[in-house]
């Protein structure tokens, strides 16, 4: 027997088979606490990456937009997951600081390597937070670029290291040349995995000069039905295009119109792309369809009216934050 004998005994024979079952009974917090008790548990808990959750969420941290405050409380909005009605945290580096902390421990840096989904809620990315995201979460399948705190450098980190990405979204990234951003994703790995790229151009701004062209990312094409860029090589495998098969009917009520298929009567709300799935259709004309400003958590789901208890018409106004941050 050596000094390590207890470790040896615990990690051998029938006990080894029991360990995974034991760990399954513990929540994340208990597992972290157990890992702190001795080397054996620390090793067993951190070595088996499959035991860690594959999604990571941050809590909401911030204040409500004024126009929401009149009718709804922060709790209601948070409960409905309408993160876009919540402004980013006061500190523009909040996300960066959280990720820095995670990356500072070797165990942590390791344990998120199989995470496929991160939800940073109303936090906002900087180049540094994107660099850390790429480092900590190389297996993520979705990324959302939003706002002016990031540049092409941050996008570069993600595109190079997160090669399993399926969904990429750009919202109000006015410091980024979208054509250049698209070109970064032109690789074999992204060609195999990417399903859609969404570009939110804003309703009031003319960003026409930045519209990515086919030559920038040849395997992706804009869809005339849903307005997303889709992977042409994958289009025949699966129906991923959401659209309204019906027609718009004018109603006398408040001079609004509704879709005959599902009754959706507020085209800019609640931000869904449609109520039926079909295959994407390549956009033939130059006048590429403008998408409404949406809430990302709902935008890519089938339209169903009952889900939305709150009314919200626009994405959050980041310009107010930039003013505060002197940008
Ligand atoms: Zn419909
Ligand atoms: Zn489509």
UniProtKB/TrEMBL annotation:
<protein>
    <recommendedName>
        <fullName>F-box domain-containing protein</fullName>
    </recommendedName>
</protein>
<dbReference type="InterPro" id="IPR032675">
    <property type="entry name" value="LRR_dom_sf"/>
</dbReference>
